[in-house]
Amino acid sequence: MTLELESDRLVIAALATLLVMLGAMMLGGSLGQILFSYTIIAFFGMYVLLGVKSTAERHGWRPFLITVVTVVGILAVVFSALWHFHHLNPTYTDPVYWLGFPRATAIVVYALWMPPALVLMFAYPYLFDDYIWDSKEIEKFDEMERTRATASATGGDD
């Protein structure tokens, strides 16, 4: 198996990101933790783009890049807030509560989990018919359903 620079750019970028993450873990300390946090965000973005690569090559990268840049931007801001509040009170001796949780937990629950999930939750159905589901896949799905219905009607195993 060989990597081709032009067609495997995302795979090569993901491998480079993993090497940076490994270096950040070996570096340790605050700098290593911050570098690892932002590198994992980039890795998540590349993972999503790698998943939509064949679809994006048929239709264009623009809608997927907008979605990923939005999610990565949200994650970068939220991780910055987490690091900022961590450095204000690293021992958590007197935690400040937001919406019923300690501040860091509230940021994770309300800012780290929800906005990216909502962006992806609304982007996926919006992009599905135009970009993800194509006529070949519809034909495959219909054929599988016909085969399953025939097997079910004749008493065959599913």
UniProtKB/TrEMBL annotation:
Keywords: Membrane, Transmembrane, Transmembrane helix
Membrane spanning residue stretches: 10-28, 34-52, 64-85, 105-127
Name of the protein in question: Uncharacterized protein
